[in-house]
């Protein structure tokens, strides 16, 4: 690279600083929340907490992790994330694979059918009535089945299947494999990367599910974590049956922030894996 | 006559041959067709039935009578919508917010992508990218929790800085005049980084020869950006812009709902939150379906208009 001119150097410096500040603006709020979740009641009520915890304590987390309602919401969310993602992967791949094969006559009609749903998303109130008619209200199925296949993820998967060399499939057919055996013995093992990518995309959606739960779930015992967290952020008060936590009553913010952190941790934990894939995934999907 | 019969016989035999081969093809690959059935059924039930269920916008839908038993009322629900005294306010909110998004957030992603592209320290670039992509994966509820904590009038980070500078604390979420900038800012915070991915990928595919040639011609980086990078990005920008126009009334339910309260709903309420409040909480299904239909039709018309316009002026279009 040639030597940089003076103005280019100034720009480089400005750019480095600006982007650094931008990155900080995304990190600092999260640090602030983390600090509050680890701070004592006194420090919170006197609003002394900045970016580091004051009067370090784990009491907020002890409360969160011992509160049956929060734990229940957690369990619900873990359940819909695990079971929901499995349903997503089975449903998406079992449609994307046949529609990626040239032997499938009439696949164009179905591809258009899927594509159209990207332009015309299902309207919410009629979907709500459908869920009601199917008797899925107040059942966790309502959070897993209506979104079983996303058109975007479908196209990501399909373009991956299309890249599998045809010769491989033909060779195994000559060896006497049936279509199902080809799928199970050849395609599935080859598709681990795309399964991981799409699975992570789906899992994040399930973990963050909120609106559908507002529409389809009324029973508090079935609230997923996001709904419960929202409720806690709104109420500004906590109920404690336990003496140990009576101090926390005067500063519910610590508990609220601890719940925010706990709701965030799984996302942060899978984020490095996600990041490895989502750039590639977005490219595949945008090609279509 | 005879030749006619012969010909038609030949045609029909060719037809049966063709259809026989189609059947044998179907039979040969029956497993493929079989495993595709659940997915197709899914799309029909959960994507297309609700779409056609939108006809209840023209009914006075009664949950006990169903679509077949409910009375048809023509455009009564749409009339009710336009006559509702608050409708223009909510629609205005929705449009103003969408315009803010187009004016501020949309170009911000392009600028950020250009700036990221100029970073020469690879490790630093990767760290910045990792951080700015991340908020996209946080739920709106979590983001509202973070925002409440950072902007809280008593204990928030921002207000403690404002107080240190000697000003009055600002109750960001309790001020009707601040809710729109707040909502747009929150969306920018969450998605500006993630939106750069597609631009960065488009930039990566620009041939380096172009830049070298420009350098020999004495063009500096800024000029290169204007004459090479931006024109190369134009197709991507156009397509994303058209998509955004088509979604002009889809500002995002969760993005607004988690910040909405009685103090700021005057300027903050949008069609989607109204649909939820009136449709689900007040059970006015036909009325809110009409609003939903209105939303999609407006989006579609705008998309079509801008698409045609863009096809004529730039040659780029979605369809």
Automatic annotation (TrEMBL), chain A:
Pfam families: BPD_transp_1. InterPro entries: MetI-like, MetI-like_sf. Keywords: Cell membrane, Membrane, Transmembrane, Transmembrane helix, Transport. Residues 74-274 form the ABC transmembrane type-1 domain. PROSITE patterns: ABC_TM1. The chain crosses the membrane at residues 12-35, 69-97, 109-131, 143-161, 182-205, 254-274. CDD domains: TM_PBP2 (cd06261). It is a multi-pass membrane protein. The keyword Transferase does not apply. GO terms for biological process: transmembrane transport. It is found in: Cell membrane. The keyword Transport applies. It comes from the Bacteria. One of its GO terms (cellular component) is plasma membrane. Belongs to the binding-protein-dependent transport system permease family. This is Protein LplC. It comes from Paenibacillus montaniterrae.
Automatic annotation (TrEMBL), chain B:
Residues 91-306 form the ABC transmembrane type-1 domain. The keyword Ligase does not apply. It is found in: Cell membrane. Keywords: Cell membrane, Membrane, Transmembrane, Transmembrane helix, Transport. The keyword Transmembrane helix applies. InterPro entries: MetI-like (IPR000515), MetI-like_sf (IPR035906), UgpAE/MalFG_permease (IPR050809). GO terms for biological process: transmembrane transport. The chain crosses the membrane at residues 31-49, 95-119, 131-151, 192-211, 232-253, 285-305. It is a multi-pass membrane protein. PROSITE patterns: ABC_TM1. One of its GO terms (cellular component) is plasma membrane. Belongs to the binding-protein-dependent transport system permease family. This is Protein lplB. It comes from Paenibacillus montaniterrae.
């Amino acid at each position: 690279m040639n030597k940089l001119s003076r103005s280019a150097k100034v720009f480089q410096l400005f750019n480095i600083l600006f982007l650094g500040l931008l990155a900080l603006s995304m990190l600092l709020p999260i640090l602030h929340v983390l600090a509050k979740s680890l701070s004592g009641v006194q420090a919170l009520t006197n609003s002394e907490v900045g970016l580091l915890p004051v009067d370090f304590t784990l009491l907020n987390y002890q409360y969160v992790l011992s509160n049956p309602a929060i734990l229940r919401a957690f369990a619900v969310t873990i359940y819909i994330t695990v079971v929901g993602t499995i349903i997503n992967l089975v449903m998406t791949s079992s449609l994307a694979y046949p529609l990626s094969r040239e032997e499938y006559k009439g696949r164009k009609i179905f591809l258009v059918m899927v594509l159209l749903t990207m332009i015309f998303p299902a309207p919410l109130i009629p979907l709500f009535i459908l869920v009601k008619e199917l008797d899925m209200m107040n059942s966790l199925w309502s959070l897993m089945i209506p979104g079983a296949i996303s058109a975007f993820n479908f196209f990501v998967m399909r373009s991956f299947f299309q890249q599998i060399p045809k010769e491989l499939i033909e060779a195994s057919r000559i060896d006497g494999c049936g279509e199902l055996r080809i799928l199970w013995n050849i395609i599935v093992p080859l598709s681990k990367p795309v399964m991981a990518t799409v699975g992570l995309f789906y899992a994040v959606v399930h973990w963050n599910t909120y609106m559908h739960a507002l529409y389809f779930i009324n029973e508090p015992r079935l609230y997923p974590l996001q709904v419960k967290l929202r409720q806690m952020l709104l109420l500004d008060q906590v109920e404690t049956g336990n003496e140990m936590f009576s101090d926390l009553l005067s500063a519910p913010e610590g508990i609220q922030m601890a719940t925010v952190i706990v709701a965030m941790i799984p996302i942060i934990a899978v984020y490095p894996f996600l990041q490895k894939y989502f750039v590639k995934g977005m490219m595949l999907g945008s090609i279509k | 006559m005879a030749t006619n019969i012969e010909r038609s016989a030949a045609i029909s035999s060719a037809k049966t041959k063709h259809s026989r081969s189609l059947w044998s093809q179907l039979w040969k690959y029956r497993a493929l067709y079989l495993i595709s059935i659940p997915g197709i059924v899914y799309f029909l039930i959960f994507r297309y039935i609700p779409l056609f269920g939108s006809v209840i916008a023209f009914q006075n839908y009664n949950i006990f009578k169903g679509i077949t038993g409910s009375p048809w009322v023509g455009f009564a629900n749409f009339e009710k919508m336009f006559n509702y005294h608050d409708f223009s306010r909510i629609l205005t909110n929705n449009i103003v917010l969408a315009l803010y998004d187009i004016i501020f957030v949309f170009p911000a992603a392009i600028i950020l992508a250009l700036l990221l592209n100029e970073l020469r320290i690879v490790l630093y670039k990767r760290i910045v990218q990792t951080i700015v992509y991340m908020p996209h994966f946080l739920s709106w509820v979590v983001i509202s929790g973070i925002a409440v904590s950072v902007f809280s009038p008593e204990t928030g980070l921002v207000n403690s800085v404002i107080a240190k500078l000697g000003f009055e604390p600002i109750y960001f979420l309790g001020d009707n005049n601040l809710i729109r900038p707040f909502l747009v800012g929150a969306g920018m915070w969450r998605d500006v980084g993630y939106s750069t991915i597609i631009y960065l990928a488009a930039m990566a595919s620009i041939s380096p020869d172009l830049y070298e040639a420009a350098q020999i011609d004495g063009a500096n980086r800024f000029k290169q950006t204007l004459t090479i990078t931006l024109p190369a990005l134009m197709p991507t920008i156009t397509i994303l812009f058209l998509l955004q126009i088509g979604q002009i009334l889809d500002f995002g339910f969760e993005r607004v709902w988690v910040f909405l309260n009685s103090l700021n709903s005057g300027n903050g309420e949008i069609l989607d939150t109204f649909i939820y409040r009136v449709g689900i909480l007040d059970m006015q299904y036909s009325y809110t379906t009409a609003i939903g239909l209105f939303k999609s039709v407006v989006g579609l018309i705008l998309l079509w208009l801008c698409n045609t316009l863009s096809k004529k002026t730039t040659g780029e279009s979605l369809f």
